[in-house]
Amino acid sequence: MKFRKTGWLKDSFHIQFREILLHALGRYNAVCPAYCLMPDHVHLLMLGWEESCDQKVLVRFLRKHTNAHLRTLGYEWQKQPYDNVLRPKDREKRCISKTGRLCASESSQEKTR
After folding, report:
1. Which domains does the chain have, with CATH numbers?
2. Which of 56, 69, 76, 103 is at 20 to 30 A from 40, Cα to Cα?
């Protein structure tokens, strides 16, 4: 954690992030019922709504276009993103709501640090 950069989470970035995210979701046939911008990283809960949804391409688009704004603030996403894809064996009943609650609880914990 000591090597993670902080300070990029500004209102101007959040506005740009949300706009780019909405564009990417529409373009690549996905939804994002929950996201959480943390001081040094981002959590996204994304779901494709059609078979044609390619979330890798969506994330590549999102990273490219949000990086352009991050660079104006003196920051950049790390080269290799971390993702956790829910495989069929992981898709138990209520897994989406559990993941959304986890994202929200991490955000709440960060506010109290």
Report:
1. 11-112 (3.30.70)
2. 56
User: How big is the chain, counted in residues?
Assistant: 113
Contact between 30 and 58 under an 8 Å Cβ cutoff? The reply is: yes
- pTM of the shown model: 0.75
DSSP 35-103: EEE-SS-EEEEEEESSTT--HHHHHHHHHHHHHHHHHHTT----SS-------GGG--TTHHHHHHHHH
In DSSP terms, 37 is beta-bridged to 42
**Among residues 81, 37, 14, 27, which one has the least CA distance to residue 58?**
27
pLDDT digits (tens, 9 = 90+) for 17-30: 999 999 999 999 99
Q: Computed from CA positions of residues 80, 61, 100, 53, in that sequence, does the dihedral angle turn out positive or negative?
A: negative
